[in-house]
Amino acid sequence: MSQLNQEKQHQEGQGKENLDYILITPAKNEEESLPDLIKTVSSQTALPIAWFIIDDGSKDRTFEIITNASKEHSWIHPLRLKSKGGYDMEEHYSRVCRTGFNYGRHFCKKHWIPYGFIALSDADTAYPKDYFFKLTSFLRDNGEYGIVSGRYLIKSRRDDPAYTESREFVGMSDPYGTGRIWRRETFEETDGYTITKAPDTVSNIMARLNGWKIGRLNFIEFYQMRETSTGGRTDLWSGYCQRGRRYYYVGGNPLGSINNALYILLFSRSKKSLVKGAAFFSGYFSSYLKRERRTENEVIRRYMGDYMGILSNYRLFIRSLIDNVK
After folding, report:
1. What is the model's pLDDT at position 90?
2. pTM of the model
3. Tens digits of residue pLDDT in 223-265
4. 10 Å Cβ neighbour count for 83?
5. Does domain 3-224 have CATH number 3.90.550.10?
6. What is the Cα–Cα distance from 311 to 170, expressed in whole angstroms?
7. What are the residue boundaries of the structural domains of the chain, listed by start?
8. Residue 291, Cβ neighbours under 10 Å: how many?
9. Residues 256 and 247 sit within 8 Å (Cβ to Cβ)
10. How far apart are CA 179 and CA 266, in angstroms?
């Protein structure tokens, strides 16, 4: 069967339940993680109508792995960027993702590929076979929701079969960055994935401000192969300092930064929770004292700087504290 016919058959098979989605994955030096991700995505009960894997100038076998996968699955499309330098979890990451989203949407428009949802997955992630089916089904059946993700579990070592739960995020209902999926209308209404130091936060806020509900579906689990905010390329302290700086960048106020640091410290369920909480606090107040540049989006700054919203978050904090004491 020709690749064109395979593509057509794939699209027709996916369209029966109106769960069509495209998937974007940025990847840099991910030869260890990508094979697992490709295996779990290609085993999904609801396959992506098209999957665009963006190689960000890798120096290992990443692009070779993507290319080989595209030969096996006609719906996998590689894109290689001529990126130089190291890995950057701030604006460069959002720029790579936005390039992937723009490329994927243009490709689908050019080739008349229909889709209703847009998903993002990092390369160090793995999914149970019904993950995207459950998320797209939820969005299909709950029209008020614009962005959702599942809940991730972390594998601390690649040779360790066990996963542990991560509970270190304030605002426990917000979707994660990886494993998230947008309704297409929501993505387009909110200017998609903006180039910023905190693209997931900005996306969540803009969706809310446009009247959409967002949610983390804790009954749907997926897996990360390494500690969040480290990317496997930097130490834990630097990763969480960076998270604190991002919170400052989007306009977070001091009370909120203390709230986040305490939440990480008390609920991280990690032996390194003290390091994580202290690093977040250090990163935020380092930027605060230096009066570093903040986002130019005034709407985001006002939203994140709202002390009433932070007080509401403290109510969540206290409820979580009581639940854990029980």
Report:
1. 66
2. 0.80
3. 887 655 444 445 778 888 888 888 888 888 888 888 778 777 7
4. 18
5. yes
6. 12
7. 3-224, 236-325
8. 8
9. yes
10. 25
